[in-house]
Amino acid sequence: MTKLYRKIFTTLAVIFISLPVNLVASSPLIITHSSSMPPLAFTNDDGQPAGLLIDFWKEWAQNSGTEIVFKLQPWKESVNAVITGKADINAGMYYSFARSEKMLYGDYIYHMQGGLFASDDFVGMHSLDGRENCGVIKGDYAKTFMTEQHPFTPLILFNSAWDMFQAAAEGRLRLFAADYPVAIYQMNKLGIADRFKCIKILYTRNLHPTVSKSNKDLVNKINQNMAAIPSKKKEAILSRWLDIDSEGNSLGRYAIGFAGLTLLIMLLLHRTQVKIVLETIKKRLIPGN
Asked: How many domains, in total, are found in the chain?
């Protein structure tokens, strides 16, 4: 009887020990990032996750056969979610020593530049002499960079990228520091790309996925399957989101092309009248003809 109880106990123990492992393995990985950092990651007008990093991780999930769900939220909360275990992966962030003590970093996804942008009426002036306020986004690396490298420049802190670029569009901000692709995307969307210029590249840094300190196996899985994504796929994603030609600019090019084609057709249809006009102009400009 005792042997029977031992067998039953052993069988139940094996079941209960293995059950959590199976549940963890089969449950989707939660990937988090900012809900308002286009074109990297944001919640679109339909309430769905969108952006460059979202597309990267969808490709990664398909390549690795992993089920994932996205949880986009304010940036600081997305960082803390990984540290506290409420999310499995932060889709991408810059390296810092302080963060590395709390999280593990995967191989970088791609590198990104940050720039100093100024309005047209401010270009050429001494932008970082401490007399002009510079806009930065709370929790963004640009804020850390400006604090460390330009401590005498007064900073205006904004809660989100949208808030900062809206202030720029309304003329309330003449100088700001931001990640280059974020700035280009937001300015194109607001129609102010022709009013601001990047006057200085501030930094170039790599963007890495992060996981909790206790999840080393997940880092290895991320690295292996991210590296396996074909280069053409990666290039297509980057081009889709980092193309600085906005839809408006594309439409402008089409409009110019259409206008040129229309002019050519008009010239062909009315070539006789055009020839008479050109002869008249020639006589007026060249005396004696």
From this structure: 2
